[in-house]
């Protein structure tokens, strides 16, 4: 059985349907801690992450940004001291799509895999960040 965080993103396009309430409920059960909010008639996923210092939250914000950039699906990230609020929805369909739930699961994995050494590993080596210069090679971040 594949974990939600390991599933691949298939970018949605106009004409794709947003998840209905039943689909939202089914997938929401796979990402504990995320809530469905409704803003201006759009269903969105939202979660707050808390750390004891600003740099830890800043690092998580960066990790999530890197994951999003790899698949060209981007959340709203609201950064405060010790707190990061992440909001996902699919703009082109005006609601929630399976991709949003996959990305939420990837965010949770990123938050759990913070390593004390300052190196980050997400989804079996999808990317790494540590001090130094980095470049993309074969879908993985590697030190120059």
Fold and architecture overview:
- The chain is α+β, with helices and mostly antiparallel strands.
- The protein has one domain (16-143): Transcriptional coactivator/pterin dehydratase (Gyrase A, domain 2).
- It has helices at residues 21-28, 54-71, 98-112, and strands spanning 35-39, 42-50, 76-80, 83-88, 120-122, 127-129, 134-137, 140-143.
- The protein has a four-stranded antiparallel sheet, with helices on one face. The protein has a two-stranded antiparallel ribbon with strand order 5-6.
- Strand 1 and strand 2 (42-50) form a beta hairpin.
- Helix 2 runs antiparallel to helix 3 (98-112).
- The termini are far apart.
- The relative contact order is 0.19.
Q: For the CA atoms, what is the radius of gyration?
A: 15 Å
Order of helices and strands: HEEHEEHEEEE
Structural class: alpha+beta
Judging by the overall fold, what is the CATH architecture?
2-Layer Sandwich
Which class in CATH terms?
Alpha Beta
Taken as a percent bin, the fraction of beta residues is 25-35%
What's the β-strand tally?
A: 8
Q: What is the subunit organization of this protein?
A: single chain
In whole angstroms, the N-to-C terminal distance is 36 Å
Largest sheet: 4 strands, antiparallel
Principal-axes shape call: globular
Strand order of the largest sheet: 1-2-4-3
Number of helices: 3
């Amino acid at each position: 059985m594949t974990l939600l965080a390991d599933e691949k993103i298939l970018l949605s396009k106009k004409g794709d349907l947003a998840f209905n309430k039943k689909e939202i409920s089914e997938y929401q059960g796979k990402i504990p801690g995320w809530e469905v909010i409704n803003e201006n008639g759009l269903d969105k996923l939202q979660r707050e992450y808390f750390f004891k210092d600003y740099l830890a939250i800043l690092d998580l914000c960066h990790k999530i940004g890197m994951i999003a950039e790899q698949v060209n699906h981007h959340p709203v990230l609201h950064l405060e001291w010790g707190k990061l609020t992440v909001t996902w929805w699919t703009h082109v369909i005006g609601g929630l799509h399976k991709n949003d739930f996959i990305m939420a699961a990837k965010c949770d994995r990123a938050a759990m895999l913070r390593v004390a050494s300052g190196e980050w590993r997400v989804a079996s080596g999808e990317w790494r960040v540590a001090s130094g210069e980095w470049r993309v090679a074969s879908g993985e971040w590697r030190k120059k």
